Every structure is written in C-alpha cells, then in structure tokens.
Write the structure tokens for this entry.
Amino acid sequence: MTPFTRKVILIIQSIPEGSVMTYGGIARAAGSPRAARQVVRILHSMSRKYKLPWHRVINAKGMISLTEDESASLQQLYLTGEGVIFDERGVVDLERYQYVPELDMDLELPPEPGDEEDT
C-alpha cells in the first residue's frame, strides 16, 4: 500500500459523524491535491475492508456523486440520519458541514499482515 493510500484511508476514517469531506479535500489533506480520482478508486476498492464511512464523501459542489439511484438514496439517508441537511437541490452546505482534518493528525496505519516494512 502506498503512503498516499494509507493517508487517504486514515483521513476518511477520521471524518466525524455529521460531517462530510470532498474527494478533492481528501486528496489535498493526503498531500496530493490533484488526486481526487485516486481517492474515488481507493474509496471504491477499500471501503469494505477498512470499514470506511464512504457516505461522508461528496463532490466539490456539495452533492452526492453516485449515479446509481439506490446507492445515492442510501448515502443521502445515512447523511440525513447523522444530521446533515440537504437543500431542495440536493446540495450540502460545505461551509457548515465540511470537515477539515488537523494538520498534525497521526497518519500512520498499523502494517497489514504480509506488508513488508520499509528498511
């Protein structure tokens, strides 16, 4: 696992209930501001394994990006259940709900079994 992937996982895990982050915000916080699409791939492939709160990640417009109606509805239901309010257009007020992780947060995941340590 790359250091960027580890950071993304930790950042997503740190998003508190009732808050959201954007794909680009996660990429910036992980040190690669232009890697929003990579965040999408990490979220898609690792949410189940790392129990990531995938529903707390939305796009830069404050909207749900999922195109499948059932998944998008589920994401909105989860966020609403956590107290996040959507306007009539389905937009979240990012100034109110966007989480910004602490710059000094510990971005170290314990090594996975089978991961080789850098020497």
